[in-house]
Amino acid sequence: MDGDNKEKSNLPWIEKYRPQNLEELISHNDIVNTIKKFVSEDRLPHLLFYGPPGTGKTSTILAVAKQIYSPKEFNSMVLELNASDDRGIGIVRENILSFASTRTIFKSGFKLVILDEADAMTRDAQNALRRVIEKFTENTRFCIICNYLSKIIPALQSRCTRFRFAPLSTDQMLPRLEHVIKQEGVNVTQDGMKAIVTLACGDMRRSLNILQSASMAFDEVTEDNVYLCVGHPLRKDIENIVQWLLNSSFTEAYKNILQLKSAKGLALQDILTEVHVYVHRIDFPVKIRIHLLDKMAETEYRLMSGTNERIQLGSVVSAFQVVRDTIVEEAAA
């Protein structure tokens, strides 16, 4: 037993605190209640879960599987294939087909095939799968999990009951984070907690990873420590950048931002994302704001193409300079 506890203590928190049953799931009550009803009435359809990462898709189906099957039955009744496994047309025609086609002689009920990260499957594999799903519905249920619904062929979508897992709200994430903090004895400040939730953007897995990293790197998890841990620009750094962009000369603003980027190891992509929030808060005339957002979007697109960060930084600073000159000219007129 001590060996089990030691093994569990070495686990990443995202696995250590993964919900073990449907009661432990913290969000999407309407989806969980619907699935509970399916399970209790023994009428589980083929399922298609989609939505952003860390919103509980895999946890939900694993909790369902643990509720339906005993630990002894689990390995023989559940086939779980992830994106890391080969899931080309050959695997669909061989492994999945042979698993689905073999009946359960001594056990009642159906088998469960879980296809995680299904948007990474080829179209050929998906086309081969649709016939398998149809043919063995009597003794096998399929659960397809993906981030992007558009990457699943319509033929598969129509054979499944779809559920969208939306990003988690702050109210849903906080109780679970507090539970982990209490269990692990982590020292977290109120602003540290707020920073974790802000950076996670509704991704529970990411919030636990940030919490674990920050707690291992620092004795106290504060706002600054959380931002430093994930390499995200601090709020005061972004405020300084916006201040320079709006008030300093081109040369001074460019030089200051470049120095800050080098000192803190910031990516221009992250700076742009944060500055974008401030652009919406500042009371610019509509025409000016549209121009600025257009230029920033263009810069982000160019960054994605792998262009030089220094040149793109010059482009951002110059966009703000043009905006300032336009405002001064309009005021003078």
UniProtKB/TrEMBL annotation:
Location in the cell: Nucleus
Got a GO cellular component term for this one? Answer: nucleus
Question: Gene3D superfamilies in the record, alphabetically?
Answer: 1.10.8.60, 1.20.272.10, P-loop containing nucleotide triphosphate hydrolases
Q: Which UniProt keywords apply?
A: ATP-binding, DNA replication, Nucleotide-binding, Nucleus
Which residues belong to any copy of the AAA+ ATPase domain? 43-171
Any GO BP: DNA repair
MF (Gene Ontology) = ATP binding; ATP hydrolysis activity; DNA binding; DNA clamp loader activity
Q: Which PANTHER family match?
A: REPLICATION FACTOR C / DNA POLYMERASE III GAMMA-TAU SUBUNIT, REPLICATION FACTOR C SUBUNIT 5
Q: Which NCBIfam families match?
A: PRK00440.1 (NF001679)
In the record, the note on similarity to other proteins reads: Belongs to the activator 1 small subunits family.
Q: What is this protein called?
A: Activator 1 subunit 5
GN (gene name): LOC115224713
